[in-house]
Amino acid sequence: MTQAAWDDVEPLPVHSAPVPAYGTGSLADLLPTLGFHLGVPGCAGTIPELQPVDRACVFLIDGLGWEQLKAHPDEAPFLSSLIASSRGGTGRPITAGFPATTATSLASVGTGLPPGAHGLPGYTVRNPATGALMNQLRWHPWTSPRPWQPYPTIFQRAHEAGVRTAQVSAPAFESTPLTKIALSGGTFHGRLSGEDRMDLAAEQLAAGDRSLVYTYYSEVDGKGHRFGVDSDAWRGQLMYVDRLAQRLAEQLPPRSALYVTADHGMLDIPFDEQSRIDFDEDWELGAGVALLGGEGRARHVYAVPGAQSDVLAVWREVLGEQFWIASRDEAIAAGWFGPAVDPRVYDRLGDVIAAARDDVVIIASRTEPKESLMVGNHGSMTPVEQLVPLLEVRS
Ligand SMILES: [Zn+2]
Fold it and tell me: How far does residue 102's CA lie from ligand 1's centre (Å)?
């Protein structure tokens, strides 16, 4: 971008970012509300629209945003029928949380806490103890899980309160640190096929007088990253997951409710230099930066000591209104990570945080070669990635 162009572009005010609805309608509010209805101590019913139920099942579809679902009624006839105003559905969107990424969202779901409290505030974040980036999804490099996320999950609290509690997901997730700190409590059941997961989730739901069951499907997100939202592969996955949800809904035992939701939405980013800003090739963005964390649409930028305000100024100047750009303290004050940030989480956040507003990503072609080639992306606060469905089926 030339100097003349810079002069035309005003940085976006931090407060213009549409902050997730923490405390009233975000992913972190879902399980506490269900726990409240199931009589789990310490849980609050912060989503008032949800009615009490004895057996609650959450089906989390990775990557299925509200806007993508609304745009594809033909591929998802069952899920679409659960949307408010169409054929009697009551479903509506809730917000994922910032950043809108799987590790962050799964931790928000399982702990019932916003990212500033559970402490998984990005795809990769700096571990203050080592100074190195840590991948929150793959838990790499190894970090002791419990100090990293010390809060009990809602599943653990439900299990202790005598609620039949189970997770039904892919076998590979059974003993991952992310599962341990975000989703453990009760019994984990690994099943390879989607159909088996649905059948077993219904079985587990029926096995208790009061029950809380979680199940998960990953490949809508996988195909979206690889081929794009609306690609044939993505639409095929949507058709498949629609049938899975219907299969589970049709097996609900009495006094049950199924809640279909997602961890984030997604959007495609064009393959051109304007849309894919390459951090590894941009000396201006790289000046004074010690580490680049997060992901393309939600960057944690860690400055070398003393360079924080310079980095903030340069990122604002170079990126203009394509991103909401905040200092760490501005982002915290604006509530991007929830109403508060725990002291142990504070230094995991970037000195500068850049959240995409336009259809752009900050790639890192050399240090993140795989991620830089993804068609579909997510992470920021725009409705297309932030809004996720909350669809309800009651038996
Ligand atoms: Zn993803």
Answer: 6
Span from the CA of 108 to the centroid of ligand 1 (angstroms): 16
**How is residue 381 annotated by DSSP?**
S
Distance 2 CA to ligand 1 centre (A): 33
Rounded to the nearest angstrom, the distance between the alpha carbon of 224 and the centre of ligand 1 is 8
Q: Which two tokens stand for residue 324?
A: 């909401």
The residue written with tokens 């309160």 in the block is 161
CA 267/CA 225 separation, integer angstroms: 9
Give 267 Cα–ligand 1 centroid separation in angstroms.
10
pLDDT along the chain (395 residues), means of 10: 49 82 96 97 92 96 97 97 75 96 98 98 97 96 96 98 98 95 96 97 98 98 97 98 98 97 98 97 97 98 98 96 96 97 98 98 97 98 97 95
Task: Give residue 52 CA to ligand 1 midpoint distance, Å.
Answer: 32
- CB-based neighbours (< 5 A) of ligand 1, an ion: 221
Cite the DSSP H helix spans in the chain: 3-8, 27-37, 66-70, 77-81, 102-111, 115-118, 145-148, 154-160, 177-182, 194-206, 219-227, 232-250, 283-286, 308-319, 328-333, 343-346, 383-386
Distances (CA, A) of 234 to 63, 182, 190, 284, 378: 10, 27, 24, 36, 15
Pairing of strands 352-356, 323-327: antiparallel
Contact 361, 275 (CB under 8 A): yes
